[in-house]
Amino acid sequence: MRKSILLKQGSMGAVLAVIGVIFLLPFIYMLSTSFSRQANIALPYPPQLFPEDFSFFNYIVMLKSFSVGLYYFNSGIVTSSVVGGVLLISSLAGYAIAKGSFRGKYFIFLLILATMMVPFQIIVVPLYILMLKIKLYDTRLALILPVMANGYSIFLMIQYMKSIPDELLDAARIDGCNEFKIMWQIVLPLCKPVLAALAVLNFLWNWNSFLWPLIALEDMNKFTIPIGIAFYQQQFSVYYGTMMAAATVAIIPVLILFVLVQRYVVRGIALTGLKL
Amino acid sequence: MRKEGHWYLFVAPALGLFLLFILYPLAWNFYLSFTKSSLIRTTWVGLFQYVRIASDPTLLNALYNTLYLTFFNLLTQLPLALLIATLLNEIKYARTPFRIIYFLPYVTSIVVAAIIWTYMFDPDEGIFNWFLRLLGFRGLLWLSHPSTSKLSVIIFNLWHWLGYQILIYLAGLQTIPPQLYEAAEIDGANSLQKFSKITIPLLKPTTVFLVITGTIGGMQTFQQIYMFGTAVGNPGRSIQTVVAYIYESGWVLQHFGIGATAAVLLFLIIMAITVVNVKFLVSEK
Q1: Would you say residue A229 lies in a domain?
Q2: Contacts of A178 by beta carbon, 8 Å cutoff, 6+ apart
Q3: What is the ipTM of this complex?
Q4: ∠ CA B172-A150-B105 to the nearest 5 degrees?
């Protein structure tokens, strides 16, 4: 009996490991090609796990032609502004709807739900014209402002804040705290898990965002990483090794960051699944 | 209760941004669909744009491609995700490392991943054809020919999305009470029967959720299309999606009215899917 359980567990592990290798294959291919000297001219064929002609040549060429530092800087500014904005705006609106009482509250709640059904792709044409008119086209603000109010994030804040007992807030009200102070000093510290999940999720969505930055930006000095590397690929796609080196520096830091904070991603995604 | 006025200050930032950057553009988008619009001039043309896109083979092709890719993505992704999630749920060791590895593609930028996959799909020196030749088959043309380009995108999407679906299924599996399986075992049910009579029916809400999010996500496909085959979805428009069509209409051809009209069409499709879903869920309860 025990032997058969061991056998079953072992074979399941083997199957999962093989699947894992398939998932990792593109990353392995990227890394090994980026360190192959000949990959500058042709893809190594047959593919090699450890390149025989190991060299940093592709990285040297890439660093001279690809402004990776600048793109990281731009992505960093835009994404951190969005995440900060989303957390603040969602906390404020979430608190008012979860714990406040005022006319039109239900209507506003429905409105927030409705915005979740409007994918960004649907409104890119008028949004682009709007940005031209209000002179925000080709600015970082054009990337930041439209995504700062996020219906999904507000919805999750509402759901989470509803679970906080009213007695806690009433006690503070008797002590004469105003609502903002109550939210800031009592409610938000209790919301740390959902705030962390939302920070990670919004980081992810915006860091990898592509269509809107592609439309809203023209100045290369403001390009974020996805736009920067797409533009780079148009010129360098025949330099396989160099492109793979660029891909490596574009994603490896993010993947490491993900492994460090994956608990929060998993929690956030699980919340998504419980949405219905 | 004290005065309620200050609550409006709490919701004001969110409402202001929603009105300016979602609802106003949405209304404007409908208006644009009834006009002929370049950035300089806008003239009212009524339903002309709708008539035009309804008979535009390029748009119909993009719509077909979008639905085709979405359908086959779900058909390949969901069963595989459920299978892998079941294995993960039953394994007693190394669950977290496996879960992290499976999830890496989902957090990787699609743009960057598409660059890597373009080389993997290379017909001459790519890793896929190397493997096929190793097994004694002839290599495929993958992204270089319309007959295999959709297949290539479906495989890419499978790799990118599967980790997300595994995670959601895993969360669903963990809500199933183990007593159900124990009771079934006492009644002499085998693994397959337990899977088909307990797991699949109890995971129906999860599956519905994944079908909805997958369909809506599929309707929005753009990044990998742009990277694999530019805005027109080469080879021969075989992978152009509706969003790529919107982008091409506006930012390649400068026909913003056409882009807006296609966006309205996409919006209606997504709304219809959402409504069908809500009805389905309501009838369940």
Answers
A1: yes
A2: B6
A3: 0.92
A4: 50
Number of domains, chain A? 2
Instruction: Give the residue from chain A lying closest to B260, CA to CA.
Output: A125
User: Per-residue pLDDT for A153 more than 60?
Assistant: yes
Span B93-122, average pLDDT: 94
A221 is a domain residue = yes
Q: Is residue A244 part of a domain?
A: no
Say whether both A81 and A57 belong to one domain: no
Q: Looking at the partner chain, which of B17, B88, B104 has a beta carbon nearest the beta carbon of A23?
A: B104
Q: What is the pTM of this model?
A: 0.93
What's the CATH code of the domain at A208? 1.10.3720.10
A95 & A191 share domain: yes
List, for residues B34-74, the tens digit of each pLDDT value. 988 766 777 888 888 899 888 999 999 999 999 999 999 99
The Cα–Cα gap between A199 and B212 comes to 24
- Residue A141, domain extent: 66-236
DSSP output for B31-48: HHHTEEE-SS-EEE-TTH
* pLDDT confidence band for A85 (50 / 70 / 90): very high
| CATH architecture group of domain B49-284 | Orthogonal Bundle (1.10)
Residue at token pair 């959601």: B168
Residues A144 and A228 in one domain: yes
Question: Do A106 and A224 share a domain, yes or no?
Answer: yes
Question: Of chain B residues 61-100, which have a CB less than 8 A from chain A?
Answer: 84, 87-88, 90-94, 98-100
How confident is residue A275, by pLDDT bands cut at 50, 70 and 90? very low
Structure tokens at A97: 């709807």
User: With an 8 Å Cβ cutoff, is A184 touching chain B?
Assistant: no
Provide Rg for chain A, Cα atoms: 24
Tokens coding A133: 């008119």
- The pLDDT tens digits of the residues spanning A50-64 come to 998 899 999 999 999
pLDDT at B121: 96
AA letter at A234: Q
Are A133 and A182 within one domain? yes
